[in-house]
């Protein structure tokens, strides 16, 4: 299953409740990717895989941004790990800071919502499964 497996399994718990239609679309799009490409699966059953890309950010301070290449209306799922304090998820459009402790999971519409991690102290890294609309020409249009 690999180191990302538990995160993918954990994301799969709220995803079908929060947005079952989009979760099914992610799975269908994943199954349509070129079968000749070697894609690292993090789930035990490749038919249940949703995310062909993953990012690990180690002690990275991000500027306020949107995930401009992500699926239109899609979800960015993030989970911080390490020994740190602070580092809230900041959503300036909404005027909120959301605490996200080590091992927590947050889902947000990363393409539509400006976000960044607030300052923290200690050692921190993020695991982030990614669904980008650039994976195939039609992906960004499926959720419109």
Written account of the structure:
This protein has 144 residues and is α+β, with helices and mostly antiparallel strands. It has a single domain (5-141), classed as 4-Layer Sandwich (Double-stranded beta-helix). It has helices at residues 5-12, 15-18, 20-32, and strands at 53-58, 76-86, 89-91, 96-98, 106-108, 116-117, 120-130. Strand 3 and strand 4 form a beta hairpin.
Q: Count the strands?
A: 7
* Structural class by sheet pairing and helices: alpha+beta
Domain count: 1
General form:
globular
| CATH architectural name | 4-Layer Sandwich
Percentage of β-strand residues: 25-35%
In a nutshell, what does this entry contain?
The chain has helices spanning about 5-10, 15-20, 20-30, and strands at about 55-60, 75-85, 90, 95-100, 105-110, 115, 120-130.
Compile the SSE list and pairings:
Layout: H1 5-12, H2 15-18, H3 20-32, E1 53-58, E2 76-86, E3 89-91, E4 96-98, E5 106-108, E6 116-117, E7 120-130
Antiparallel strand pairs: 1-7, 2-5, 2-7, 3-4, 3-6
Please name the defining characteristics of this protein.
27% strand, 7 strands, 17% helix, Double-stranded beta-helix, four-stranded antiparallel β-sheet, alpha+beta, three-stranded antiparallel β-sheet, 144 residues, single chain
